[in-house]
Design brief:
heterodimer, A: 640 residues, 6-stranded mixed sheet, 9 helices, B: 202 residues, alpha+beta, 6 helices, 5 strands
Chain lengths: 640, 202
Amino acid sequence: MLKTRWTWFAAAGALTLWAALSWMGCSGGAKGGAGNFASAAQKVYVKPGEHDAYYAFFSGGHSGQVFVYGMPSCRHITTIPVFTPEPAKGYGVDEESREMLKGYTWGDAHHPGLSETDGDYDGRWLFINDMPNARIARIDLRDFVTHEIFGPIPNVSAAHACPFPTPNTEYVFAASRFSAPVPVGSYSRVEDYGKNFKGIIAGVKVDPKSGHMSLGFEILMPPFDWDLADAGKGPSHGWEFFTCYNSEGAFDSLETKASQNEMDYVAAVDWRAAQKAVDEGKARQIGGAPVLDPATVKGIVYLVPVPKSPHGVDVDPSGEYICCAGKLQAEVSVFSFKKIAAAIAAGQFDGEKDGIPVLKYADCLEARVPVGLGPLHTQFDGKGFAYTSLFLDSKIAKWKVGPPWKVVDDIDVYYSIGHLMASEGDTRHPTGEYVVALDKLSKDRYLQVGPAHPEAAQLIDLRGPKMELLYDFPTYLEPHYAQMIRAEKVKPIKYYPMDENHNPRAIKRPEEARVERKGRRVDVYMVAVRSHFTPDVLRVVQGDTVYFHVTNVEQEEDIAHGFGILFSSKDMQVDPGETKTMRWVAGKSGVTPFYCSNFCSALHQEMQGYIEVAPPGSKVSSLQRPSAQRVSEVAALMRH
Amino acid sequence: MSYLTGTFAGNQRRWIWLAALVLLPVFFLPVLPIWIMKLWAPQYREGLQLTIFANDIRGDLQSINTLNHYVGMKAISAADFAEFRYLPQALTLFGLMALVAALVNRRWVALLGWLAFTGFSAYMFFDFARWLYHYGHDLNPHAPIKLPIFTPPLIGIRHMANFRVLSVPGPGTLLLGLAWLLGPVVVLLERRAARRAGGPRG
């Protein structure tokens, strides 16, 4: 009897211990997985040889690049080098792109912005900012190549709210994330922040034909941290909206000191009025830019109070509602443009901030939508719903734009979402098919690759009544924002038509191939065609600076030629019909081989040549030409 | 009075021995957690854990403190708890008292030990609740994220911001509870034995 009692107690003790330990080990449930994997898989599957419905352009963050994905397959198609040299394409190596980079080897690319016509993507260009160096690049979607880098924009100190094009790509914008003394580079004690520091909003004009960028105007803003932007459309066309944090004007310990005010601001900029004021000579030149002081030039900018450090500002497809996500508040404040315009017209201001009229929050507010914790950005589906990313909740909340202004659905994401991107989700006509969650922090969702995790992105279906996770895929560092455009709107070329090659250094016939010497400068006019360079042997003298002008005369798909020189950092890719120039200094005497670094044909490996580098003082003829036989061989190939 | 000065019958005395034995792992080796708190959030699906021992607090302390600083909660640090400096000794004392009670076999020693243990345990519960209140109420007013004041759960599950917080006694406390329960068990057994013997004695 006694014995059994002891056993009973021991068993009870063990049971208690087991219960307690299993409590320790238990884990929280998580929803949000793809419920029906087979059906989800079908929705992202694109058969071999078939094409995706969308191009998606992901900013490369501090990789300084743009990643192009096909959607819904989530296949990485290509990487476009923008702010960072890229050996694979010779970007930043050939003279043209090297000059464009201006010596920078890095950029922090945040917000891709597709060009628009009448508020819809037109598939012509993709703009993207380099935040720290205040630059905007323009990628031509004809060839997916960076054609222009504008900036550093004068006075702008880190272009974060950038470029966010206007509905007809009249402007792309840039605003200082880090207010600083203007002109940039001037000295001040940081303690004199309130007195000497200024924010800047810059309107960069885009030529409607060429896409060429030029500075339209700048506006002196209070020394806040200007954060994000979006262009008005429809009724709000003509305005650009900018959020800020740190309306406290703190200059150190921002984590705490910039989060104290209940209200920060969204700045509404009437860019047509600003441009008019500059055209009327109301600007003063600061740091080489026409700068408007809103204290003296009225009617160009107004401040609308927004609760608790707003991050994203997003205008809905109708152009009537301006949605600001207070990142330290569980709400999106929706402002009505009608109400803002009425308050401005009535002159109902709540005083001024550094000469800028401040509107009353209640006058402009349409609704406060309780979306969840850490709201950052909002996208739209064109069916009357908005989608807000929630950083802290790691969710996307779907809510009704309009009464009752309530969340109707939400979905978990993996993890800590930043931006989100709906298919054509910031245009006047979003397609409402997909949204992609772009995660700031991520758990290992893929095979582990060490402590630095790839960023996670998830494709979510918006077509049903409930959001459905279809697929997740890794991205390289570090996408901030992305844009998704219907594939048929983009019309890339297969090669550069030779008759459109107006490069003055281009040679179109082998008879023009030559090596010209002027003093210590040698210009090599070279033809590249399968499978040889002409000339393929040339003679220079040690210390010469040699410019290789290589024209790829091919007129066929994907026959790109590379041009790489041994024992150098010199390699470039020349696409069919293109001419590129590469500078190389003949440092040592000897023989230096060069070769085609981009596979081009069965005899690709035979596509090579030699540079004889004669010792200093050697006599070299000032004009070298390939042999007549060589020229006729190449001419025969080109007729082919 | 004679009851208190009396001794336990063999059976009941073994229960006192057991109480001492059950207390042993807790007081000699503070390796059994006395309290466990677990926190889940969407970004911490596998959960973060705080494990409180008689002399230390361990687990994902660093992560939890980093998160808590955004809402202005004071950093949790073992050094702040004076309890950790006397709790193991106090538990040792109760274990020893149980041992002594079993050795000398006097009811009053056992009762004294049991009452002291009860009082101390009640105080420790109150103390723990006070700490939880303190962490959820003394928030830095300048914190970037302003939460309404809150009290983490003493026992059970509560939702706090984007976290689900579970708080449960650990195996250490369960063993202590078991040892404590042996007090009433002994009394019960004695009463039953007395009833069987035909009426109350002493």
